[in-house]
Amino acid sequence: MSGVHLIALLSALATLVVIVELSRRRQLHPKYAVLWLSVGVVLGVFAVSPGLFNRLAHALGVISPPDLLSVLAALFLLMVCVYLSWEVGRLEDKTRTLAEELALLRREVDDGGSR
Amino acid sequence: MQPGPDVLVVVPALNEAASVGMVVKELGAAVPDVAVLVVDDGSFDGTGAVAQAAGAIVVRNVFNLGVGGAMRVGIRYALAHGYRAVVQLDADGQHDPRDIPVLLAPLDPDGPPQVVIGARFAGKGEVTVPWARRAAMGLLAHSLSRMTGSRLTDVTSGFRAHNRATLRIFAHTYPADYLADTVESLVIASRAHAAVTQVAVEMRPRYAGRPSQSAWRATVYLFRIAVTLALALIRQRPEPVEPEEVPS
């Protein structure tokens, strides 16, 4: 096992440990835990058997396997960012609606109290 | 329709303590039967207290939601309390409450969705605007006129009247982003087959506060308008809601 594969394996293990620990402490929602656990597992598999990734690269017609790795990683992170923006926007809308409802409810409560 | 107790004037206000009291009192003098709701959009200068002292109903947002968010609160309040029309009026004194009967005249409270805009370039008023902003407004007016099929000249005006059918469309969909509240709301309304028309009103100088006008800001404004308009065109049309009546 060469240096780069050892680093990859250690990173994969570190990811898994951190994700499991965060889930255990209820700091990470299961939906995100599943996402990052899968990343850790995939990374781990390729670190343990580099031949698998090389065969995949060649099957796809990529000459240099590390290129495929960078492209896939960049695409994956881009997708995650877009997903998180979507999620933040949704949360913003929900917070906004809650604030609007709170303002109206407070008015009703005050009206009820003074009547 | 005529101004009466079935009309709610919604005044979105953010840090307008210097002018909101005067605006509420003027409303009381110009259209005494009409209910006035000031939506204090998270002010820290006592806007809500001033408005309440002047005789308005006040709803306070816990934090700043923007004009659009304040309008949603006002519109939902109107639906819940059975008002048949909402007039939107700025808290800075730009809009003359004596124009409210003019704004309400073409409105059919129980008819199909309808928006009446109080437009400042419709032959009345003396407010001057820098050229870049005027160009942006011209572009907007042109696009929205085509979309709604009626001649509109001042689509960013915040002086408007909505009937009940329109309120049902806007209750949860009144756009909250800055600028989008005026422009996108018209797109939403016209896509829901609302009749959008305008009447000429006079705009006055504000009682307090600085108007936001400089070359740079006008350019940013132009850009945001283009984005807003493009987005409004591709966004899906929201469904109208059934109002939840508040037991009283």
Please provide a written account of the structure.
The complex is a heterodimer of chains A (115) and B (248). With 115 residues, chain A is mainly α. Chain A folds into 2 domains: 1-48; 65-115. Chain A is built from 4 helices and no strands. Chain A has helices at residues 3-24, 30-48, 50-59, 65-114. In chain A, helix 1 (3-24) runs antiparallel to helix 2 and helix 2 (30-48) crosses helix 3 (50-59). Chain A is elongated and about 75 Å long. The relative contact order of chain A is 0.07. The mean pLDDT of chain A is 90. Chain B is α/β, with parallel strands linked by helices and 248 residues long. Chain B is built from 8 helices and 7 strands; from the N terminus they run E-H-E-H-E-H-E-H-E-H-E-H-H-E-H. Chain B has helices at residues 17-30, 47-53, 66-80, 100-104, 131-148, 164-170, 180-191, 215-234, and strands at 7-13, 35-40, 57-60, 85-88, 114-119, 160-163, 195-200. Chain B has a 7-stranded mixed sheet with strand order 3-2-1-4-6-5-7, with helices on both faces. In chain B, helix 1 (17-30) runs parallel beside helix 2 (47-53). Chain B is globular. The chains are: A mainly alpha (115), B alpha/beta (248). At the A-B interface, helix 4 of A face strand 3 and helix 3 of B.
Record the SSE blueprint.
The complex is a heterodimer of chains A (115) and B (248).
Chain A: H1 3-24, H2 30-48, H3 50-59, H4 65-114
Helix pairs in contact in A: 1-2, 2-3
Chain B: E1 7-13, H1 17-30, E2 35-40, H2 47-53, E3 57-60, H3 66-80, E4 85-88, H4 100-104, E5 114-119, H5 131-148, E6 160-163, H6 164-170, H7 180-191, E7 195-200, H8 215-234
Parallel strand pairs in B: 1-2, 1-4, 2-3, 5-7
Antiparallel strand pairs in B: 4-6, 5-6
- Uncertain regions spanning at least 5 consecutive residues of chain B: none
For the biggest β-sheet of chain B, the strand order reads: 3-2-1-4-6-5-7
Tally of helical segments of chain B: 8
Which class best fits the helix and strand makeup of chain B? alpha/beta
Tell me the number of structural domains of chain B. 1
List the chains of the largest interface with their residue counts. Answer: A-B, 10 and 18 residues
Indicate the structural class of chain A: mainly alpha
**Low-confidence region ranges of chain A:** none
Shape annotation of chain A: elongated
Sketch the topology of chain A as an H/E string, one letter per element: HHHH
**Termini distance of chain A?**
79 Å
Q: Report the radius of gyration of chain B as a whole number of Å.
A: 17 Å
Q: What does the overall shape of chain B look like? A: globular
